[in-house]
Amino acid sequence: MFEAYIICGTPRTGSTLLCKLLASTGTAGDPHSFYRRQDVSEWAEDWKLPGRDTMGELEFNVAYLNAAIIAGKGGAGKGGTDVFGLRLMRENLDELSAILDQIFPGLASDRARFEMAFGRVLYIHLSRENKLAQAVSLVKARQTGLWHVAPDGTEIERVGLPGQPQYDFQRIKAEFTELEAYDRAWNRWFAEQGITPLRVGYERLSADPAAALLGICEALGVRAPNAEDVRPGVAKLADETSLDWMRRFHSDASRLTQ
User: In 90-228, which ranges are E strands?
Assistant: First the structure.
């Protein structure tokens, strides 16, 4: 049985959907992006850690790691599980590795550092085959400020003031290129670390969330819910605007290569 799992993702691959599904099982922890640098101060405040200015860097990092492990298992007490969950985007990987190297110096690899910190880890590579759809989704989210909605349409996550989506070929192209690079970087890292990840595709996850969740629970060795009881907590944001942008992008890309 694994003691932890890390969802290795990139933006707009369904990681929020997957995190909510795993948390809903009651057996597979409560994964979040604990090491997304923009959120560290907020998490530390939520966990009532002493201020960073009151302790050394190493002391803070140790206290933060211990608190993150408790939170990633679903919290202390009756709500906790035996499994720790973490969502990690490729852009935060090197920073987390450096923090763990400070806490556990002298280890030979990222994999060794992660397993020293979290125990035996299942690495879940969450990716999206349709990179254009992923890039369009990312550009729209950044323009509108709306990142996630519930199945009933209520907002779950908004970052910034509401804005109007505007088609932007160059911006979509740049995000497309970066997302491809992040996926390649994950695959290089898996190879370097001798890791064979459990691969989960966005397309399958969004089409059949229950099947994807049960497969992960089986791999983790934890009790899975009944498939009919699985209720996705996040709805798709793709709409006719998304499809229109994809059509326009293909047309513009074709015209520019002629």
Answer: 121-127, 146-149, 155-158, 198-201
Nearest partner of 123 among 6, 233, 4, 237, judged by Cα: 6
List, for residues 198-231, the tens digit of each pLDDT value: 999 999 999 999 999 999 999 999 998 888 888 8
Report d(CA 103, CA 97) in Å as an integer. 10
List the beta bridge partners of residue 125.
8, 199
- Residue-wise pLDDT for 169-209, tens only, equals 999 999 999 999 999 999 999 999 999 999 999 999 999 99
Closest by CA to 114, choosing from 74, 147, 68, is 68
With CA atoms as reference, report the closest residue to 1 among 107, 111, 84. Answer: 84
- Domain 4-256, CATH among 3.40.50.720, 3.30.9.10, 3.40.1780.10, 3.40.50.300: 3.40.50.300
Q: How confident is the model at residue 236 (pLDDT cuts 50, 70, 90)?
A: confident
What lies within 8 Å, CB to CB, of 175 at 6+ separation is: 134, 135, 138, 139
